Amino acid sequence: MEIEFDVKITPNILYDYMLHHTYSSLPGIMGSLVGALMLVLFATGRQPVCLIIGVVILLYLPWTLFIKSRQQALNTAAFKKPLHYRLSEEGIEVSQDDTVEQMGWDGMVRAVYAPEEGEDSRMRRKEPAGTGMHGGRCKAMKIIETHSAGETFELGRQIGQQAAAGEVYTLTGDLGVGKTVLTQGVAAGLGIDEPVCSPTFTIVQVYEEGRLPFYHFDVYRIGDVEEMDEIGYEDYFYGDGLCLIEWANLIEEILPETYRRITIEKDLEKGFDYRRITIETC
């Protein structure tokens, strides 16, 4: 039996997602509160400057997201045409135009965090025979399951401790899935003590106090991949530090030839804090 379907990201879908992502984050919430406060101050004090500031704050961000969603949907190759999925007994096939990637069910690696009797929680891996992906660009897949934010953080710490200069990681996952927690763990593994948060508005945040420079990207707001040239992305991608890029699917054409892809997924049937973390070498 086979199941086939297409997935197409439209400008409206992308705009709705951006709004949800923005106003679910601390910067978005704080911006809304400041804008509302300005309107309250205008209503009580009748100061026109408060009205202007409040309207600008409340309307500017949704308008810029509207423009960027249109630009991304029209200019990003991944969004121009639908992705075609085919699920069969052998595995999953994803295609777009002439590009096809296949993943076999028998090639997956399953890992579980579970406490053993009398011991603390630890990670256990079960390695199957054969490779993790057949065809396609990404190989050597590992699937790791965590059951708390602490375990996700610890996995990130391990990645940071084992990371080498010049490595690039991409990070994908829905809102609230734990991308920031994993990133904070990576920073801790590099010996970085300062607070780490998503660089939603700055595109890249640089941390240099660890054993390696840490370059944390969040590129979902860029309207065109050329914006990466403006920040000098090559100095980071091909530098002496560790790069971690959120929403890297938007800039696939400029990613290095070799990188590691991390995908975090929820499964509420397995618990609220359950996370399925896939790591692939591409």
Fold and architecture overview:
By secondary structure, the protein is α/β, with parallel strands linked by helices. The chain has eight helices and 13 strands. The protein has a nine-stranded mixed sheet with strand order 6-5-7-13-12-8-11-10-9. Strands 1-2-3-4 form a four-stranded antiparallel sheet, with no helix packed on it. α1 packs across α3 (48-75) and α2 runs antiparallel to α3 (48-75). The model is unreliable at 108-135 (pLDDT under 50).
Give short descriptive properties of this protein:
single chain; 282 residues; alpha/beta; 9-stranded mixed sheet; 4-stranded antiparallel sheet; 8 helices; 13 strands
Count of individual beta strands: 13
Distance between the termini: 29 Å
Beta-strand content bin:
25-35%
Largest sheet: 9 strands, mixed
Give, in spatial order, the strands making up the sheet with the most strands: 6-5-7-13-12-8-11-10-9
What is the count of helical runs?
8
Supply Rg: 21 Å
Helix/strand-derived category reads alpha/beta
Overall 3D form: globular
- The overall pLDDT, averaged over residues, is 80
Order of helices and strands: EHHHHEEEEEEHEHEEHHEEE
Percent range for helical residues?
25-40%
Unreliable stretches: 108-135
